[in-house]
Amino acid sequence: MPSLHTNTRVRPALAGFEPYDPAFSVCEVNLSANENTHPLPESVQNAMLDAMRSTPLNRYPDPLANNLRDELAAWHGVQRGNVMVGNGGDEILFNLLFCFGGPGRSLVVCPPCFEEYKIFAKMCETDVVEVWRREPDFSIDADALLEAARGAAIVMITSPNNPTGDLISPALVQRLLDQTDALILLDEAYIEFAKKGSSLVSWVADNPRLMVLRTMSKAFGLAGLRCGYLVANKEIVDVLAAIRQIYSEDVVAQAVATAAVRRRSELEPTLASIVGERKRLCEALGELPDVVLWPSEANFVLARMPHAGDVRARLRDEYSVLVRDFSYAKGLGDCLRITVGTPNENDRLISALRDILQG
Ligand code: PMP
Q1: Which 3 state secondary structure label does DSSP give 193?
Q2: What pLDDT is attached to residue 22?
Q3: For residue 326, what pLDDT band results from cuts at 50, 70 and 90?
Q4: Which range among 22-36, 257-271, 304-318 shows the weakest confidence by mean pLDDT?
Q5: Using an 8 Å Cβ cutoff, are 330 and 112 in contact?
Q6: How far is the CA of 215 from the centre of ligand 1 (A)?
Q7: Quick check: 117 pLDDT over 90?
Q8: Atom 6, ligand 1: which residue's CA is nearest?
């Protein structure tokens, strides 16, 4: 069969992209993708099932998911017009770059951070300016960030950051708002695991250039459902509403997410358990020889250890425990990212690592 030479046919900016690889292998314990591995409380599961059962599938979805927007708006103390729902936070990130990026414009990021920002920026022909975090604490060089942000269309900051686990300082966000003209996207995908009061979502009301991204994939345990949302100025939401895939959020996702958000207070014990397990996991890992950890406000911890790539392979192959290997990535040599699991899952991981590192 002659080749189609797709690389010469595809839009030049999109040539050479590879499909995203979540580095998944089937394992008994999967601590690789920062999901919530706890079962949701039965009352929440039942509410979601009821919502699913009463959702007709023969009708198109409400394009903007207004019931869900109303629920989210009430939660965050904003109006429906300040909320945009998407098929996962990923869709919203892409649409932000599709809307506000483009040739001649730039996105500023602070790596190591969530890699999709850069990938989506490249797809949208947006230049990427990287302000690398400093070793060894992964702190952000505020002056360098402000300098880069002054010429940028968008700045994307993750708080808590994936994979380093730290929160951005509110003072730095304030400086970004005061001293630049860029749109500032604060990605709070993991904020429910951070100490209370860490979210800056309430700042959106007074800061039209601040946008806060949240997701149902982490604390809500609904990564498979694909639902994320943005809290932002109405003008930004209106632009996103005009360019989005009309029916990207399906009826089941809308109904289930609405039921889950209504019952969010029932998730508190699970979140508290994950935070407690994070502490226990860090204490146990900290006792292992030559393991370096960074303090985390998220549902994962970053751990540096000798021969991390081999350790990850042995965890997978000999102990059926999957964690994420970042040892190939710039700035993250010999680092593994480990999702905080259930007490049993964490025990499995700790005992396997003890065997491997002390054995
Ligand atoms: N932001 C960050 C920092 C993430 O880690 C993720 C997912 N891993 C997302 C956004 C997107 O999540 P989702 O598309 O599942 O909402």
Answers
A1: helix
A2: 81
A3: very high
A4: 22-36
A5: yes
A6: 7
A7: yes
A8: 189
For the whole model, what pTM was predicted? 0.98
DSSP 248-284: -S-HHHHHHHHHHHHTGGGGHHHHHHHHHHHHHHHHH
* Whole-number Å distance between alpha carbons of 356 and 359: 5
Q: Which residue owns the Cα nearest ligand 1 atom 2? A: 189
Architecture of domain 42-265: 3-Layer(aba) Sandwich (3.40)
Averaged pLDDT of the chain: 97
> Tens digit of pLDDT for each residue in 129-173?
999 999 999 999 999 999 999 999 999 999 999 999 999 999 999
| CATH code 3.90.1150.10 region(s) in the chain | 6-40+267-358
Q: Which atom of ligand 1 is nearest to the CA of 161?
A: 3
Q: For residues 62 and 204, what is the distance between their CA atoms, to the nearest angstrom? A: 25
- Identify the band that residue 23 occupies on the pLDDT scale cut at 50, 70 and 90: confident
Dist CA 344 CA 324 (whole Å)? 19
Q: Which fold has domain 6-40+267-358?
A: Aspartate Aminotransferase, domain 1 (3.90.1150)
Comparison of pLDDT for 198 and 25, the residue scoring more? 198
Q: Ligand 1 centre from 224 Cα, in Å?
A: 12
Taking residue 81's Cβ as centre, other Cβ atoms within 10 Å add up to: 16
> How far apart are alpha carbons 186 and 84 in whole angstroms?
15
124 token code pair: 């949208």
* Tens-place pLDDT, residues 69-82: 999 999 999 999 99
Q: Which atom of ligand 1 is nearest to the CA of 218?
A: 15
User: Using the 8-state DSSP alphabet, how is residue 144 labeled?
Assistant: H
> Over 80: is that where the pLDDT of 287 sits?
yes
Q: Which residues contact 314 (CB under 8 A, 6 or more apart)?
A: 352, 356
Locate the ligand 1 atom nearest the alpha carbon of residue 162 and give its number: 3
Q: Does the pLDDT of residue 177 top 90, yes or no?
A: yes
What's the CA-to-centroid distance between 114 and ligand 1, angstroms? 8
The CATH 3.40.640.10 portion of the chain extends over: 42-265
